[in-house]
Amino acid sequence: MKKIVFIAVILFFASALAINAQRATPRVTGRQATQQARISNGVQNGQLTMHETMRLERQQRCIEIEKRMAKADGTVTPGERRFLRREQNHASRDIRRQKMVGNNLEKNCYRQYFPDQCRGMSGMCLFF
């Protein structure tokens, strides 16, 4: 009798761990934290404007909602994991583009094509 109860308890905990493993998304959570830090770093360095920051934050909120929806039924399927990974890849590209291209485009593009309209060393153009 004790063996049966012991085996039942072990099976119960093993199934609970298996279910939790299917619901857990540590990579998604870790990437979200990394991306959030990159956004914060961009704001502190002045690489991101308020509008760009709001857009990137909204994108992160959408990924969080999608993650919660994937976990809602108790299992995160491989297809849902793939979808979340693609969304995070897209968000990562957006962060990189906004940090690198966004400010450089404003400062350098007009200077390159309209040098007469730009004010000296500051890089501020009359268009803005």
Can you put this structure into words, describing what you see?
With 128 residues, this protein is mainly α. It has a domain at 29-97. It has four helices and two strands; from the N terminus they run ααααββ. The chain has helices spanning 2-23, 26-45, 50-72, 78-113; strands at residues 118-119, 124-125. Strands 1-2 form a two-stranded antiparallel sheet. Helix 3 runs antiparallel to helix 4. The radius of gyration is 24 Å and the shape is elongated. The N and C termini lie far apart (81 Å). Mean pLDDT is 75; it is low at 107-111 and 117-128.
Secondary structure blueprint with pairings:
Blueprint: H1 2-23, H2 26-45, H3 50-72, H4 78-113, E1 118-119, E2 124-125
Antiparallel strand pairs: 1-2
Q: Determine Rg (CA atoms, Å).
A: 24 Å
Which series of helices and strands comes N to C?
HHHHEE
Total beta strand runs: 2
Compute the separation of the termini in Å: 81 Å
Largest sheet: 2 strands, antiparallel
pLDDT averaged over residues: 75
**Total number of helical segments?**
4
The proportion of strand residues reads under 5%
Outline: elongated
How are strands sequenced across the largest beta sheet? Answer: 1-2
Helix percentage: over 70%
Summarize the structure.
The chain is mainly alpha-helical and 128 residues long.
